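Narrative of activities, Objective 1.

The group set out to show that a structural description can be obtained from nothing but a protein's sequence at a throughput compatible with the screening campaign. Below is one input-output pair from the validation batch, recorded exactly as produced.
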Amino acid sequence: MISLDKLKKGDKAVVTDLITDSIPLTLLEMGCLPGNEITVLGLASKKGPIYLKIDESHLSIDFVTASNVIVEIKN
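Output recorded for this entry:
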């Protein structure tokens, strides 16, 4: 298991844990919850926003928030 900020464009993973209580409520409402699948659609830069698809939602999150989402890569 690794943090979401370590994934590359095109990677698919399943959320396994959130390691902080400071995850924005909006992110949780959009489906960033344990058991849900994430696909990385794009990366703005090495430390920039990460563009994701979570279930049927498309969103962008910052690098720091992504580092607090633990995922398991799918094959």
